[in-house]
Write a structure and sequence with these properties.
The chain is mainly α and 397 residues long. The protein is built from 15 helices and no strands. The longest helix is centred in the middle third of the chain and has 30 residues, at 213-242. It is globular and about 50 Å long.
Length: 397
């Protein structure tokens, strides 16, 4: 098979990436429990991962403009695999946090590279719909990854980390052989320029020219939704293990169902919203539904209702993400794509950082508090989305 530029090939790689990056999720609570770590580790480890993703995402977007999307993807996958292998062999809380930090730094590179590649090789009229399909591929791969990780975890949780490491390393190396880069003439990077690019604060400064009132309001929406989603999801995952004592296979099955629902929603509701409606206006309604369904998960005393309302929440949650991805690159020039996808992922990651930390801190006070925080953040994001829509309607000077 020869190398070629291809949206289809990158979609397949996105599926394989999503599977590989989700093997560990069903077994991570088991690892932490076996290590007898405090409950805060679930939130703090995720926060550390997201923080390093935040720090490096803009860098990866800009760096991929220099060396190419595929090279960044290969580097990121190989290093992410090694970081996850390290996590599986961790013997202390500090080792867990170091491994999660490394994983966050390189997961950002892989995600930014695939998203930027899809935008690069898509015709402008198809970018939004291709991003919806891209997100759908992430949903189905999440389901498969969780399920396979749960199955491996029933044999031994360590096996899930070992398979994950091998999978990611092989994926990174294989992509370099089968996918032609979307950057036709990558720029040569001088050592001094590379050092500037590695500095995350210089990377953020490079995005300053893209800032406007509309863009700032949009990034507030991205931040709040990242906070709300991660706060809810972390609490939900830990609740299944700590309160219900679900085994990894059951965690995997639940996430598999969520992934299938997300896949159906992306191929139906999302494509309809993007093609037939004003996506900015529709985003307000979707985020309001996220707040409503998250609130439904607070109804106490009924496990079936709790699971059902969370499935409804994750459906609404799956719908808003491709809308925000599509809006992030709407009307952007090709030379802005790398930076803007990195900025989008960075702001989302910062929301994830604080959402994870908040979930870990308030869960110990009351197991329902993280869900309450998620409701509030989604309500605020709907209000911010309304302001974003109104601002975007006004003529820009």
């Amino acid at each position: 098979m020869t190398k070629k530029k291809s949206v289809f090939r990158m979609m397949v790689i996105t599926v394989l990436l999503g599977i590989g990056m989700n093997f560990h999720h069903p077994v991570t609570p088991t690892l932490y429990t076996a290590m007898e770590l405090p409950s805060r580790i679930f939130g703090t480890s995720m926060a550390v991962m997201c923080f390093f993703s935040f720090l490096t995402s803009v860098f990866w977007g800009e760096f991929s403009n220099h060396i190419g999307r595929v090279k960044v993807f290969t580097i990121s996958c190989v290093c992410y695999g090694l970081a996850q292998l390290s996590l599986g062999f961790s013997a202390s809380e500090l080792a867990v946090l170091i491994s999660r930090g490394a994983a966050g730094a390189f997961s950002g590179g892989a995600i930014v590279a695939t998203m930027a590649y899809v935008i690069d090789v898509s015709e402008p009229s198809k970018q939004a719909s291709n991003l919806a399909v891209y997100t759908a591929m992430q949903s189905v791969s999440l389901a498969v990854g969780y399920l396979l990780g749960g199955v491996l975890g029933t044999i031994h949780f360590q096996l899930a980390f070992n398979v994950q490491a091998a999978w990611m390393i092989l994926l990174g190396l294989g992509t370099a052989f089968f996918v032609e880069d979307s950057i036709v003439d990558p720029q040569t990077v001088k050592p001094r320029e590379l050092l500037k690019t590695v500095n995350p604060f210089n990377s953020f400064a490079s995005a300053r020219s893209l800032m406007s009132t509309v863009m700032i309001l949009f990034l507030i929406v991205v931040f709040l939704t990242g906070f709300a989603t991660n706060c809810h999801e972390n609490a939900f995952n830990y609740f299944l293990k700590a309160e219900l004592d679900f085994k990894p296979i059951y965690n995997g099955l639940i996430k598999a169902v969520i992934g299938v629902i997300g896949l159906i929603a992306n191929f139906s509701i999302n494509l309809w919203i993007i093609r037939r409606t004003d996506a900015k206006k529709s985003l307000i309604v979707v985020l309001a539904l996220c707040a409503l369904t998250a609130a439904g998960a607070l109804i106490p005393g009924n496990l079936t209702l709790f699971i059902a309302m969370n499935l409804a929440f994750f459906t609404a949650n799956a719908v808003y993400q491709p809308i925000t991805q599509a809006l992030s690159v709407e009307g952007r020039k090709n030379n802005e794509v790398g930076i803007i996808t990195g900025l989008f992922n960075a702001i989302k990651s910062m929301g994830n950082v604080l959402g994870s930390l908040a979930a870990g801190i308030v869960y110990d006070l009351n197991m329902l508090f993280p869900f309450m925080l998620s409701v509030g953040a989604f309500a605020l994001s709907a209000a911010a989305a309304w302001a974003y829509w109104r601002s975007a309607k006004r003529p820009q000077l």
